[in-house]
Amino acid sequence: MHRILWLIVAVAFVVGAFVPASSGPDECPPRDTRVTAPYAITGYWVIPRADRCVTQRMVEAIHTIGGDTLITFGPRFNAREDPEFAACRVDGRPCAQVPGKEIRQIYTYTASEEFGKGMLRCPGLERRIESGGRAFYRLSLAETCGERVHDLVLVATDGDGLGNLMAEAAAYGMKVFPGLPAAAQREDKPWEPDHDHTGALNAFTARVLADYRARFGASGAFGGVYQSFELAMRDRARKDPIIELYTAQHAVVADALPGKPILVSPYIDARRGRGFPPGQAGDGMEDIAATRAGAPMAIAVQDGRGTGKVPVHGAHEAGAKVVPRLVPVVGDVSNAQAYYGATREYVEAAAGKVPDGVELWVNVEGFEPTPAAGECGRVEPLPLRGRTTKSRLDQQIMASGPHAAKIISYGWDPFFTCQARYDTPSLADDIASGWRQPIIVNAVRQDRNGRAGILVEGHNLRGGSLRFNPQGAVVRQEWHSEGRFESAWAPYVPPGSWTSITATNGAGHTSTSPYVIR
């Protein structure tokens, strides 16, 4: 997920209401700071880029469809030899050799950022190095510069992508969550951190966060940090290596960046035989929240639909066949045969155990498990992934229910920007043209003024009517309110056991998928 093929496809919008970009010989086009198509997804994973104008185009496209949050992955804090660093030489020697010092361990770190001058504490030993057409940093993890034995971190950078992202986010009133340095992995179990290097990771994390505090501390765009090492949001073992990593590294965050939120995005897996039932999601929520060391935390549950680990069907569809895009993952069987439950059940279980100081977010996976013929998507790294549709995203937002404080998505490039052909729309284009379509996230029976009816909550519901099937009744809304969600009420008593509700708002736009209640 760290090195995705970059595909920039600008979303076309009408020009106007500009804020000038900074002046200079390489001045980018003026910024358009309008939000013209506010969609329910408000945050995206992005790739920092050294080109400021490329960064501006990306940030502007996300902002235009309602995005206010940008998240980056943290580079791997690598304890293994990396041939990429052979090009790093200083004073005729490999960068890993320092005259008069014993080098015990070499760590490598490939980033898209330029550190501040305060990162270099030890003259001569710690340096920024131009070598082989690349820029490198050599940093020491020793407590003092005069020590004889040092562990070194060699950092390769392709430019200040993170700095560009912060600057553009600030210009558009957005927040950035840079990824924390990602822990070294065990060679025999790469899904676990290698705790032989946790002490070094924490020392390096503290250095990086101190640099962020110096460079970005005064910027309103610095929203917090993202924990890149993934884990399943399930009941964890009493001595769990990933929870131990979180506990140690989050303590560093709480100390270095008081009050800054930590974002974690654990996954859920509903596949029978490989995953776990919905009830464990609440236990996982508690275990992850316990690692925050007093810092605010947002836990953004990966909804699992993009990888095929979790379906988004309604309760009435348990006996139905899985949708065709999930067949390559679980086979041509029913939802109940393939999965323990659907996204809504896992989110509801997590929502029941959100402690103080923690927010529940949902990370809707904006891709398909495998590509279809003629479809654009991810070509590297493996596995291949396909492009999804706006209507599928609408279903994922519905499945998140009213519980999520925020909905974010992995990931902007290439899934929201790629095109099957130059003359076909991207997913971002489809959102821009269809953002007014209603999305119902909750529906309940409710009496108002002695009359029975249905209250729906969601997005873009104002005015218009609710259609109830299979009865075919179309009933006009009689009440509407604005809050965290829009609410609309219509007088109707469903006669059957399952009733689907489709909203058409006052502007004539209709929801792409019905919401089903019993």
TrEMBL record:
Top-rank lineage group of the source organism: Bacteria
Pfam families hit by this protein: DUF4434
DUF4434 domain segment(s): 161-416
InterPro entries the record matches: DUF4434
Entry protein name: DUF4434 domain-containing protein
